[in-house]
Design brief:
heterodimer, A: mainly alpha, B: MetI-like fold
Chain lengths: 305, 294
Amino acid sequence: MTTTATRDKKSRRRRAFTRGDRFTLSMFVGVPTFLHLTWVWFPALATIGLSFTYWNGVHLSDIKWAGLANYNTIFTASPQFYAALRNNGYWLLWFTFIATPLGILLAYQIDRKIRGSKVYESVYYIPVVLSLAVIGIIWRFMLGPAGLVQVLLGHPGIEDAIPIFGNYSINTYVILTIASWRHIGYIMLLYLAGLKSVDPSLREAAAIDGATEWQSFKKIVFPSMKPVNTIVIVITVIESLRAFDLIYIIYGTSTGWPILGMLVFTNIYGQAASMLGAAFAVILFVLSITPIVFYLKTVFSDENR
Amino acid sequence: MSSIVQEKKYKDRQKRKDALISFFIGIFAILWMVPILWTFWTSLRPYSDIIQKGVFSRPDELNFKNYADAYRLMDIWEYLSNSFIVTIPAVILTLFFGSLLAFVVTRYSFRFNLYLLLIFTAGNLLPVQLVYAPLFKMYIWFGDLVGNRNLLYDSFLGVILIHVALQVGFATFVMSSYMKTIPKEISESAMVDGASVFRHYWSVILPLLRPPLAALAVLMTTWIYNEFFWAVVLIKSDDKRPITSALGRLQGEYVTDFNLLAAGAIMAALPTLIIFFILKRQFVSGLTLGSTKG
């Protein structure tokens, strides 16, 4: 009975589309989909294909099959690759264990409606709305020649400045600190919004019953924030993998601090007509598949419920 | 009785704790602002002052002269308007396409709806490095094909389109989760009244989408304005660069003239800072609409 009713309703609706409606609907879906597939997915698949070839990037007829040669070169004859992998790894570890938890901690404390929390919120947000190009320059004024940090370290002149970005024993920490300046605010912002949906009386009741802050966070707050947690994890991983802008602004295309995103950039259409850059991009893609799938799974299983 | 005592004790303890936390977070917040304040401070001082007396000296004069100079010497206005020429149409198109898709996906039960959303959302998360090299070639080839190499490559149009293609997924996702909260009855009555699909979208749904549209507009404007990867890859002529990618070049050119560069950087940051301070609520809700539905 119900099935016939729904089927009736469905067929009636389908019949209800006039020719004009059908045209409108296909344009509504077709135009954005065409743009997205042609501009994003087609090039992405092309990069994957090209990573198995040699090509100088001029004529399509010059493309030669290379099999796994590009990957072979990367894995066996490219020390830069391992340096980049290590740096992306540091980035991920730093974001996972330092920057992201700090963002969450800040959100958790600011959510207590302490005095001045509105002002603090804005202060921590500011780096989030700045372009990484601006952030790179701002930090040059801090760390570069005649920068604030140089002055504080007793090297005020331009000539006697100590190298910070070029100093291999510290530049990793410096870069990750700069990146965190933005990331912490971003995570705080996301988490704070999530926290607003947690019933404050629950936290209060737990505290009155003698639960420590850590216990109430672990047992009450964290579990009730599943969608935000997913987003935070995905953002942390993906941002660590595809980092590019900040390094580009600080080091240009030199390999002062190699990362995968930069190796794609410097190896594409160059380097003896190989497609090394494409292979680097595919490696980057393979590394990001897990967080992407994890995200889609969480989001779209919620959707169907 | 005892529970009241316990609660009062808890409140007192909480108050002391809050004061302590507020103190530490305040100190941390001041540290947070130091890089920006320092840049601002640098931008107010003349170059000669720093050369003669060092950076930490007491300034003889503080003024906005560097801003006037940077504005003139660095062509800041030209780069800023390039940024606007890219950002404004890109945001409008993204929101328009996003609202169309969200409308179809949530109001009609086509079988491909879920796959469509999946493809768009996944595309939004792809590393851009996977996309740009073939896209660059496609732009040049298509340009040569129609007899105008700069139709897409080295043109605003090309940068706008890739921004739209990438961001439309996020916009669709946010708007479709918002639209699920709009009762279906509204649409059904429109259909029963015999409104065309276009009228249904334009006069019934679109006005209801105002809150997520406003939030996304603010967020997308900041994102696209701040972005510079695509301009680095797809724009060759310096006079077509948006401000963010122009800063990279200016940084090299004015490497010793900090004060001028500081003024330039602050001017480049101003549009997003202004938008943020005026429309903070929209900015935040735009970021969180996608993450805290339900």
